[in-house]
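Progress narrative, Year 2. Work on phosphoenolpyruvate carboxykinase (ATP) from Glycine soja advanced from sequence curation to structure prediction during this period.
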Amino acid sequence: MASNGNGSVANGNGTARNGLAKIQTHKKHNGICHDDSGPTVKAQTIDELHSLQKKKSAPTTPVTGFQAPFATLTEEERHKQQLQSISASLASLTRETGPNLVKGDPARKSDTQKVTHVHHHHVSTPTIAVSDSALKFTHVLYNLSPAELYEQAIKYEKGSFISSTGALATLSGAKTGRSPRDKRVVKDDLTKNDLWWGKGSPNIEMDEHSFMVNRERAVDYLNSLDKVFVNDQFLNWDTENRIKVRIVSARAYHSLFMHNMCIRPTPEELENFGTPDFTIYNAGQFPCNRYTHYMTSSTSIDLNLARREMVILGTQYAGEMKKGLFSVMHYLMPKRQILSLHSGCNMGKDGDVALFFGLSGTGKTTLSTDHNRYLIGDDEHCWGDNGVSNIEGGCYAKCIDLSREKEPDIWNAIRFGTVLENVVFDEHDREVDYSDKSVTENTRAAYPIEYIPNAKLPCVGPHPKNVILLACDAFGVLPPVSKLNLAQTMYHFISGYTALVAGTEEGIKEPQATFSACFGAAFIMLHPTKYAAMLAEKMQKHGATGWLVNTGWSAGSYGNGSRIKLQYTRKIIDAIHSGSLLNAEYKKTEIFGLEIPTEVEGVPSEILDPMNTWSNKKAYKETLLKLAGLFKNNFETFTNYKIGKGNNNLTEEILAAGPIF
Ligand SMILES: Nc1ncnc2c1ncn2[C@@H]1O[C@H](COP(=O)(O)OP(=O)(O)OP(=O)(O)O)[C@@H](O)[C@H]1O
Ligand SMILES: O=C([O-])CC(=O)C(=O)O
Ligand SMILES: [Ca+2]
Ligand SMILES: [Mn+2]
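Result:
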């Protein structure tokens, strides 16, 4: 076929042979057609073009004078120090030479060339490599940004996808929740008298040697990889009691999760980071060795307080890192007379602070995320002499049955940067189906706290006015709200009650009572009475009021009744915050002796006394007695302990504040 010289194929009369109009192109006077007439790119080769795309991050540390330890160093020296610090973290403790570290992605040649001369800190003069691992390089991906971590996850981690709203949807593997029975704590001269051991304690002992075996296993695994992720971040918004943490992990998912959940350092803070106070080695893809003493499964989460280290083997569930660090805070903070709390926390416009205690799934995140109040944090706090501070830099919300209408702020936080764990989505449009439990019921979203529009930054506040204890009572006999005196607050705090529903699919199942001291027995390190005494002292000193809120069932147990509407629970919480509930009219319930209001604005009065909502009064009474018996049995282990110092009679009052029948 002939061409007419300007590139289009046509017959002589301006109409293409198939009858379509002739394609008009710009005709330059020399008769040559150009692809376009716009400005051209300032590159001669494709590599050059790509190099234009990214500009170097701006230098972050202004030279501020001699108070900053790194200020006199060149950027290159600073990088070298950082790498040496990381190399020290990753060093095997049994070999002469540590890993050779390189900053950057091994897939990118230009990154690799940046720093190839940094060697292990032990090695100042060249030595003969004694093992193959000493010959290879480990690439360190240090404090990557969410965008970089997305790229890593999507390129290299199966099961990573971008959801329709921009979140990173991923899978945590075989474990979709924490493994408390696989937690081990090194028992040594330091911890044997300090910590809570034995019945009811979450601290299952291991010896130092077994810890080192697991540590070496994790470090060798991590060093065998082409690359590891390193996060250097902070815990605790109270800057005087801030802890520097380093997380070494093998997955971009883990790095992004911790980026969101810990406090993110500013570039300046990062450059002056120095040596971490605590290090996590997350080798979760790799199992522990069951021939190792104290190992009872392939999963082990090991805490060594003396070494300030934690090792994770055999579970990729990211919550282990979050809650592992929380355990560390439960040890370190009380030593400084600061109370660590498994609670949410928010603040009203007038500065009134509320704490929300409760076990998993009782509503800490849901109820502390309140559009009319400032969010201080959703899960882990400290209460010290200056007030409260959040330990974390992010939130970890349950997603099952999440709806835009009921929880708009959480819904809107699920966007670019958020980690979405174990959710199910449409294969084409990536719309998440929050009702789908195919992978697990424990679907989760981890997002930075700034994603909540009314987050209080920095996340600190004054002393709490209200202390709200949340229980999801699947028996349906606890009132939706009761006002507690101090002894009752302590009784319920130490009991740490909630009821879970065993099986949600196969029809009616018996609810199961869970008692977890301080609403967080899985994370506390000292005896529960130590935390209880501190809470009592602080509540008394600052005049805080205690409340018990049942976010669980009404009008019958699970199977007959139904969960109290979130809308009603929110009204109850509103009335607590505003102070109006303090002045309501109260009556006392039988057995539990709880003070219940007769009216709450926006809540049908008949549901305030659970007895009214049960059609079968006999069944109500039986269930109430059954639950009271469970409380009594559980509390027996605490009857031999004294709460607080001196000859106060709080201990007796607390014992008397339980159910009487
Ligand atoms: N009346 C209610 N009050 C509070 N939450 C409710 C209520 N009814 C249903 N829910 C649901 O219960 C769940 C409460 O979970 P939430 O994430 O707040 O738990 P959590 O206490 O923060 O636990 P975790 O410590 O595991 O993060 C949410 O999915 C919420 O939608
Ligand atoms: O730790 C987790 O996996 C989630 C959580 O907040 C809890 O269980 O209290
Ligand atoms: Ca939560
Ligand atoms: Mn929690």
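Residues 364-365, 378-379, 396-397 surround calcium ion (ligand 3) (CB under 6 Å). DSSP finds 18 helices and 32 strands in the chain.
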